C-alpha cells in the first residue's frame, strides 16, 4: 500500500496553439506516442508524457517548449487542449501545497529563463541538473521507438522482497540477443504491455529504470535487468491492477517483450576513477542505484574505481527492501549504507531525509568535493524532503546552499528521477 | 548509425568512407557545389557569421545544434533517418514484401526521374531567393532566410547522394546537371515552372515558404512512403528540416497581417491607399499575393489525371500522404476519385479511377493543410477586431497545368469569358503596381531587435534566444 500522493505543483508540458504550425514533427519524434492531434490542435497527453524532451529540439517553432504550472490533480486533459486557441493563463500558484507541505518543492533560486527549471514531473526537477556530469559516457537514446520496437527475451524473473510482505517486487532480466541495445546506468527503457484499454486503443509503453550496469546484468552479455513492483492499488488505495507491472511480474522465462528506448541523457554517472556517489532512493527507485553500485563494484575488482559510495535507502520495512541480501553483503569500506525504515516494529519511524541529517558530517564532507554527484530516485513526494535535508547539511557546514546548489546544477552533479 | 561523422570531408551517417569510389565521386562533386553556392547562393553574405542550426545526429537530441557559422563553412552532408530492418512495402503491387535497398532495374528510370525532379527544386529556391538578404526586415528574418537556404542546399546533397550511390554514371551526370540549370535562365531553366518565378520581395518569400515549401512537404511525405528504402529514409529526415521553412512562411505572413491590423486600428481605416501611405501592406494586396502563390503552387502537383502517378504508386515508388494511416486496401485498383472538368462552360466533378487521380489526391491533401494555416492567419484579424478574412481561391483559379489549364475561373469558382477575366484580373492577382509598392517598402533593417515598419516582431526568438539577439554578425 502506497500512501496517497498529496497535491503538488507540477509544470505541465503543453503546446502553444498560437505558435504551432501543425507540422507533425513532434508527433513523429515522440518515442512513446504522447503527442496526438485533431483537425485543430496538437496536444500532449499528460498521462503518457514523461518529459523526455525528444520532441523539443526538432520543433521548428518553439511552440512545443511550454511548461505551465498547474496543480498535479488539475492537469489539462487532452479534450481541453484540443479546444484551445491559445494557452490558458498561468494561475498564480504560490507553490503552497494544497495538502501537505512535504509534497512541494520550494526552491528559492533564480531559475533563470530555463523553463525546465523548477519542474516537478521532469527528468530534472527545479532542484536537479539538466545536464550530465562532464565525464559521463555518451548515451545512446531512442534507438528503438514505437515504430520500430525491439523484442527482448526474458531470461530471468524472480521476487526480490520477502514472500510474506505486501510489496511484491521483481527482478526481471531481459536479453536482446543480436539486437544492439547499448545502455548506461541511470537510463531507462519502456515496455509495451500486450492488449488494449477499454476504448480499444493499444496500451502505451511504460518506462522502467535499468537496474544493471552498462556491460550487462551478466557481464559481457547483451542483457539488462529491471526492478518492477507489482501494482495492486491506486494512489487512493483502491484496488487496481497495474497493467504493465502485473504483465512483467508474471512473465516466464523465454517469454518475449516489446521494448523501446533507451531513454535518458542526464541521470548518468561520472566516469572518473575517484568520483563519489551519494545515492538516495526509495522502493524501486533503487534500480538505477543498483546499476551504479554494481558498475563501481566491477570497476573496483579491476582497480578502476577508488571513490566513495553513500546510499540512503528508504522502505517501510527491511523485508520490503529489494535486493536487501546482496546489498548487505557489500563490503562496508566500499559502500556506506543507510537504511531508513518507516514501519519497522523495533525502531522509530525514519525517512531518508532524517538519515541524511544524521549523517550530515559525512555528507557535507563529500559535498566539499566537486567529484561528488548526487542521485535521487523514487516517489515524487521525497524530493522536497531531500532538498531540505541537503540544504540543512550544507548550511550546517557553514556554506551557502544557493551557491552550492547552483554549482551542483550547473556541473550536472545533482539528479532527480521521481515519479 | 545515427551519429554523424564530421571528421570527414563530407559529413555523413551512411559510412561513406566504406565506399571509396562513391566517396571520391562525391568529393569530386563537392567543389562544384561550393562554387555554385558562391555564385548563386545568398548575395553578399558569404562572410557573415549566421546563427545556424546544424544536425550532429539524426536522433532528436542531436538534431538541432546552434552556433554562429559562415554559410560556406556550413557542414553540408548526407544524413538518412535510421534504417528499420523490418520495413515492408505497404502499398502498391509489392505490398508486404521487403523494401528495396537498391534501385530495381525496372524502376530505375522512374526513380531517377522522381529524384531529379525533387532535387532540382532545392537549389532552385536558393537561386530565387539570393537577393532577399539585401532587403531583410530584421536580423531575425535574415537568419531564417539563410537557415532555409543552407537547408535547401543540404536537400540537394541528399538527392545527389542518391543519384551517385544508386544510379551509376547516369546518376552522376544528373547530379552535375542539377548545378548547371538555373532558376529563370533562358537557356537552361529549372524543371518546374514555379521554380523559375522570381521571389522579388519578402511577402513573396513568406508566401513561397508557406505554399511552395508545403508542396515540398507533401512530395517528401509521399516519397517517405517509398518502397525504395534509401529514398524513404532520406526524405524522412528532410521533412524535419522542411517544417522550419513552412514556419518561416506561416509566421512571416502572420506578422505582416498583425502589423497591418495594428495600423488599421491606429488610423481607423481600411483604405488601402491610406495604409500604403502609412507604410504597411494592405490586406487586399496580401490576398492577391496569396491567390498567386497558391495557384502557382497547386500546379506543382501535376496533371489531375496522370498515368505516371498510377505507375509510381502501383510500383511502390511514391505513396500517398500519410499512406500508413489510411484504411483502404493500399492498391486502389477498384477505387475512384472525383476530379474537376469543364463542360459546356461549367465546372463539374467526374469520377475517374483513383490510381490515375493520385496527383489530385495529393493536391487536395495540400489544400486542406493550406486552408488550416489560413484559418490561423484569419485569427490575427479576428483578434484585432478587423472584419477582413483571407480565403484560398477556387482550385480551378489561374491554373496552368492539367485539365483546368488556361480556363478562366474566378476565385469563387465561376467560369468566365476572357473579357470578364481581364476586367477583374487586377483585383485577383498582384499587379505591377502592387509589386512595385511592396518592393518600395523593402528597406534593409540590420540592428538587432529592430524591425521594418511593415512587419511585427515574432512572438519568440530562435532557440529561445531573445528577439534582439545578434542572429547575424556582419563582420
Brief sketch in words of this structure:
The complex is a heterodimer of chains A (419) and B (475). By secondary structure, chain A is α/β, with parallel strands linked by helices.
Labels describing this entry:
heterodimer; A: 419 residues; disordered N terminus; B: mainly alpha; two-stranded antiparallel sheet
Descriptive report:
The complex is a heterodimer of chains A (419) and B (475). By secondary structure, chain A is α/β, with parallel strands linked by helices. Chain A has nine helices and 15 strands. In chain A, strands 8-7-10-5-6-9 form a six-stranded antiparallel sheet. A five-stranded parallel sheet of chain A has the order 13-12-11-14-15, with helices on both faces. In chain A, strand 12, helix 5 and strand 13 form a beta-alpha-beta unit. Chain A is globular. In chain A, 47% of the residues are buried. Chain B has 475 residues and is mostly helical. Chain B has twelve helices and five strands. Chain B has helices at residues 20-40, 108-128, 139-166, 168-180, 202-223, 229-267, 272-277, 283-298, 307-314, 358-383, 418-428, 432-441, and strands at 49-54, 65-70, 336-343, 346-353, 472-473. In chain B, the strands form two sheets. A three-stranded antiparallel sheet of chain B has the order 2-1-5. In chain B, a hairpin with a 2-residue loop joins strand 3 (336-343) and strand 4 (346-353). The radius of gyration of chain B is 23 Å and the shape is globular. The model of chain B has no long low-confidence stretch (mean pLDDT 93). Classes of the chains: A alpha/beta (419), B mainly alpha (475).
Q: What is the oligomer described by this structure?
A: heterodimer
Low-confidence stretches of chain B: none
Number of helices of chain B: 12
Q: Radius of gyration of chain A in whole Å, from Cα?
A: 21 Å
Tell me the number of strands of chain A: 15
Distance between the termini of chain A: 16 Å
The number of helices of chain A is 9
Task: Give the total of beta strands of chain B.
Answer: 5
Order of helices and strands of chain A: EHEEEHEEEEEHEEHEHEHHEHHE
Strand order of the largest sheet of chain A: 8-7-10-5-6-9
Give start-end ranges of low-pLDDT stretches of chain A.
Answer: 1-5, 95-125
Helix content of chain B: 40-55%
N-to-C span of chain B: 38 Å
Main beta-sheet strand count, sense and barrel state of chain A: 6 strands, antiparallel
- Broad structural category of chain A: alpha/beta
Largest sheet of chain B: 3 strands, antiparallel
Greatest contact between two chains: A-B, 29 and 27 residues
Amino acid at each position: 500500500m502506497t500512501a496517497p500522493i498529496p497535491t503538488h505543483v507540477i509544470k505541465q508540458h503543453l503546446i502553444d496553439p498560437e505558435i504551432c504550425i501543425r507540422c507533425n514533427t513532434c508527433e513523429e519524434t515522440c518515442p512513446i506516442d504522447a503527442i496526438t492531434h485533431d483537425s485543430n490542435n496538437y496536444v500532449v497527453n499528460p498521462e503518457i508524457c514523461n518529459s523526455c524532451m525528444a520532441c523539443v529540439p526538432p520543433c521548428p517553432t518553439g511552440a512545443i517548449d511550454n511548461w505551465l504550472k498547474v496543480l498535479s490533480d488539475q492537469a489539462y486533459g487532452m479534450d481541453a487542449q484540443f479546444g484551445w486557441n491559445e494557452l490558458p493563463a498561468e494561475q498564480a500558484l504560490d507553490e503552497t501545497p494544497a495538502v501537505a507541505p512535504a509534497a512541494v518543492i520550494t526552491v528559492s533560486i533564480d531559475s533563470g529563463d530555463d523553463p525546465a527549471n523548477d519542474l516537478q514531473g521532469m527528468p530534472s526537477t527545479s532542484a536537479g541538473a539538466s545536464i550530465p556530469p562532464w565525464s559521463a559516457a555518451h548515451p545512446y537514446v531512442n534507438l528503438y521507438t514505437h515504430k520500430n520496437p525491439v523484442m527482448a527475451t526474458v531470461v530471468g524473473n524472480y521476487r526480490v522482497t520477502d514472500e510474506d510482505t505486501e510489496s511484491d517486487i521483481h527482478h526481471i532480466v531481459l536479453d536482446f540477443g543480436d539486437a544492439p541495445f547499448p545502455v548506461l546506468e541511470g537510463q531507462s527503457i519502456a515496455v509495451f504491455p500486450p492488449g488494449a484499454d477499454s476504448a480499444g486503443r493499444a496500451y502505451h509503453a511504460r518506462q522502467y529504470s535499468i537496474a544493471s550496469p552498462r556491460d550487462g546484468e551478466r557481464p559481457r552479455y547483451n542483457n539488462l535487468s529491471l526492478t518492477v513492483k507489482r501494482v495492486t492499488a491506486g494512489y487512493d488505495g483502491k484496488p487496481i491492477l497495474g497493467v504493465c507491472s502485473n504483465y512483467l511480474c508474471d512473465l516466464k522465462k523465454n517469454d518475449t517483450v516489446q521494448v523501446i528506448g533507451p531513454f535518458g541523457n542526464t541521470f548518468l554517472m561520472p566516469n572518473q576513477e575517484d568520483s563519489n556517489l551519494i545515492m538516495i532512493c526509495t522502493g524501486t527507485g533503487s534500480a538505477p542505484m543498483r546499476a551504479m553500485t554494481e558498475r563501481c563494484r566491477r570497476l573496483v575488482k579491476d582497480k578502476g574505481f577508488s571513490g566513495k559510495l553513500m546510499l540512503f535507502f528508504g522502505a517501510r520495512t527491511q523485508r520490503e527492501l529489494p535486493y536487501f541480501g546482496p546489498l548487505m553483503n557489500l563490503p562496508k569500506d566500499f559502500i556506506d549504507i543507510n537504511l531508513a525504515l518507516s514501519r519497522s516494529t523495533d525502531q522509530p519511524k525514519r525517512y531518508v531525509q532524517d538519515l541524511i541529517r544524521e549523517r550530515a558530517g559525512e555528507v557535507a564532507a563529500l559535498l566539499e568535493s566537486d567529484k561528488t554527484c548526487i542521485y535521487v530516485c523514487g516517489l515524487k513526494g521525497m524530493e522536497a524532503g531531500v532538498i531540505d535535508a541537503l540544504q540543512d547539511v550544507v548550511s550546517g557546514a557553514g556554506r551557502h546552499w544557493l551557491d552550492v546548489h547552483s554549482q551542483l546544477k550547473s556541473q550536472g552533479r545533482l539528479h532527480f528521477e521521481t515519479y | 548509425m545515427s551519429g554523424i561523422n564530421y571528421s570527414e570531408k563530407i559529413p555523413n551517417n551512411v559510412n561513406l568512407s566504406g565506399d571509396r569510389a562513391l566517396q571520391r565521386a562525391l568529393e569530386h562533386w563537392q567543389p562544384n557545389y561550393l562554387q555554385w553556392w558562391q555564385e548563386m547562393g545568398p548575395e553578399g553574405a558569404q562572410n557573415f557569421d549566421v546563427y545556424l542550426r546544424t544536425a550532429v545526429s539524426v536522433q532528436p537530441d542531436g538534431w538541432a545544434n546552434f552556433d554562429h557559422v559562415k554559410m560556406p563553412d556550413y557542414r553540408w552532408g548526407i544524413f538518412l533517418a535510421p534504417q528499420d530492418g523490418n520495413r515492408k512495402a505497404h502499398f502498391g503491387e509489392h505490398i508486404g514484401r521487403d523494401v528495396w535497398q537498391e534501385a530495381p532495374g525496372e524502376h530505375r528510370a522512374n526513380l531517377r526521374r522522381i529524384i531529379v525532379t525533387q532535387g532540382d527544386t532545392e537549389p532552385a529556391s536558393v537561386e530565387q531567393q539570393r537577393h532577399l538578404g539585401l532587403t531583410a526586415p530584421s536580423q531575425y528574418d535574415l537568419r531564417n532566410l539563410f537557415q532555409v537556404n543552407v537547408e535547401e542546399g543540404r536537400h540537394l546533397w541528399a538527392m545527389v547522394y542518391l543519384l551517385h550511390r544508386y544510379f551509376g554514371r547516369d546518376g552522376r551526370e544528373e547530379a552535375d546537371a542539377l548545378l548547371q540549370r538555373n532558376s529563370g535562365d533562358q537557356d537552361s531553366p529549372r524543371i518546374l515552372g514555379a521554380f523559375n518565378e522570381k521571389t522579388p520581395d519578402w511577402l513573396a518569400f513568406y508566401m513561397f515558404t508557406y505554399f511552395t515549401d508545403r508542396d515540398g512537404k507533401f512530395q517528401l511525405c509521399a516519397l517517405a512512403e517509398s518502397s525504395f528504402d534509401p529514398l524513404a529514409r532520406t526524405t524522412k529526415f528532410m521533412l524535419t528540416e522542411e517544417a522550419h521553412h513552412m514556419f518561416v512562411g506561416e509566421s512571416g505572413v502572420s506578422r505582416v497581417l498583425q502589423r497591418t491590423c495594428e495600423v488599421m486600428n491606429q488610423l481607423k481605416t481600411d483604405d488601402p491607399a491610406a495604409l500604403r501611405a502609412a507604410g504597411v501592406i494592405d490586406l487586399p494586396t496580401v490576398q492577391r499575393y496569396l491567390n498567386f502563390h497558391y495557384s502557382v503552387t497547386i500546379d506543382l502537383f501535376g496533371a489531375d489525371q496522370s498515368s505516371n502517378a498510377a505507375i509510381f504508386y502501383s510500383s511502390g515508388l511514391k505513396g500517398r500522404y500519410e499512406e500508413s494511416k489510411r484504411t483502404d486496401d493500399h492498391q486502389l485498383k477498384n477505387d475512384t476519385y472525383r476530379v474537376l472538368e469543364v463542360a459546356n462552360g461549367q465546372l463539374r466533378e467526374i469520377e475517374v479511377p483513383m490510381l490515375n487521380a493520385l496527383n489530385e489526391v495529393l493536391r487536395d491533401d495540400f489544400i486542406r493543410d493550406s486552408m488550416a494555416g489560413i484559418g490561423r492567419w484569419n485569427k490575427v484579424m479576428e483578434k484585432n477586431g478587423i472584419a477582413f478574412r483571407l480565403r484560398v481561391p477556387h482550385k480551378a483559379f489561374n491554373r496552368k497545368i492539367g485539365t483546368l489549364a488556361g480556363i478562366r475561373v474566378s476565385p469563387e469558382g465561376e467560369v468566365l469569358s476572357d473579357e470578364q477575366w481581364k476586367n477583374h484580373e487586377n483585383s485577383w492577382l498582384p499587379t505591377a503596381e502592387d509589386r512595385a509598392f511592396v518592393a518600395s517598402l523593402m528597406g534593409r533593417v540590420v540592428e538587432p531587435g529592430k524591425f521594418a515598419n511593415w512587419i511585427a516582431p515574432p512572438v519568440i526568438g530562435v532557440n529561445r534566444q531573445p528577439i534582439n539577439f545578434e542572429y547575424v554578425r556582419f563582420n
